[in-house]
Amino acid sequence: MNHFNESVIDVRNVSKCYQIYEKPSDRLKQALYPRIQRIVGTQAGRYFREFWALKDISFSVRPGEAVGIIGRNGSGKSTLLQLICGTLAPTAGEIETNGRIAALLELGSGFNPEFSGRENVYMNGAVLGLSGAEIAERYERIVDFSEIGDFIDQPVKTYSSGMYMRLAFAVQAHIDASIVIIDEALTVGDVFFRQKCYARLNQLREDGAAIILVSHSMPDIEQYCESAILLDHGVMRFIGPSSEAARHYYLVNQPQRVEVEQVIATTADRELIATACEQGVDRPSTQAFLDLTGRSQVGDGRVRCTGVALCDAAGRPCDSFRQGDRALFYAEYELDEDIGVPVCGVLISSDRGTIVHGKNSWQSDIDVPASKGAGSRVQCWQEIVLDLGPGDYVFEVGISSVSPAEWNHRRDISHEQMTGAEVRLCHLVNVGSFSVGLAIRDNVPVLTHHGLANLPGTMRIVTT
């Protein structure tokens, strides 16, 4: 990261100090008294204390590189970004940037709440250096990306925080910037839009833009950034590979002990779920079913998905889990025509669209009902241990069918042959979402592994 001659961002020995006054009168004293004291020849007093938000920070970023900036609240992350953007001046050191900067430092910054979204797009684009013709050429793409529809002609003050972020990001992502800076902005809005944002950031990187990403989500930093900078009380504690930076982050941020309510499923609960998984006859409670309104079902029309639910290990509605928790995915389908042997499955993706797990009943090698006739209902329970990295995830469900003969010989044919034999009947993409947080051990949050998934394995250490 020290190729200064190739970099688009150069930060050299930068420090930032603020003067902190205990009361307003001290600010007035500092403005007047030192001058008077110098005139009369006495030693000038100081009526403030210094707060160093950043101390001697140096790094560089090259075109097409993604760098994460991590640290707990108050570590100096936002101050550093403002210095890079030029909205603050350093107390010491120097910063050099090359090219146009697109920055989301604060939600909706640069928007006039009284103006419509359309007016703000043109105004914001002009502030960022685009001509009227350039903004007009990009306008439809910006609106389509933001997904706010007719609200584009409504005053921005009527927008939700998610709509603010969508439009702000859409503008910044379409100005052909050399440097794109994101400060936690992608934490606002739903997981589906975040997938879209990360896809756009990847495209910008391929086009040569440098990305600076500030986030408290270590999975995001590890997966998206090659390198990362760890700040702690204004000091750069680590700079290097993002996976190593994440490890140092957890060491610096030793978790505080927390009180949690641990809900343990009873034996009866577990027996009920086991029966449901084996027999597929128990439906979740009504509260567990997701709203499928507006969800498109891709298929040939012979099968309709009539319900999807997500539950915890005790069968309760749940969309917030901890590492290692068991989740129960339920889907049911109504048959309008006869089908072969049903094959059901669930696929889980990260908020950036990376598939982390997908498995169907053929891969699970379970006993399934024979061919089903019109008017029948197919129910599928799939229990999955969420040994995933902390973060947000989306899932999709689907059903296909194969002939009884093909099913009976499933162990004798290749995956490609079985996939080719499947008839896709009904598929719902991004039907639901859930989050995974740190595991809890002895009332303390614990990171069980690094990366997206915790792979099964054993470890042994011997000393001699």
UniProtKB/TrEMBL annotation:
The keyword Nucleotide-binding applies. PROSITE patterns: ABC_TRANSPORTER_2. Gene3D superfamilies: abc- transporter (atp binding component) like domain, P-loop containing nucleotide triphosphate hydrolases. CDD domains: ABC_KpsT_Wzt, Wzt_C-like. The keyword Chloroplast does not apply. SUPFAM superfamilies: P-loop containing nucleoside triphosphate hydrolases. GO terms for molecular function: ABC-type transporter activity; ATP binding; ATP hydrolysis activity. Keywords: ATP-binding, Nucleotide-binding, Transport. Belongs to the ABC transporter superfamily. This is ABC transporter ATP-binding protein.
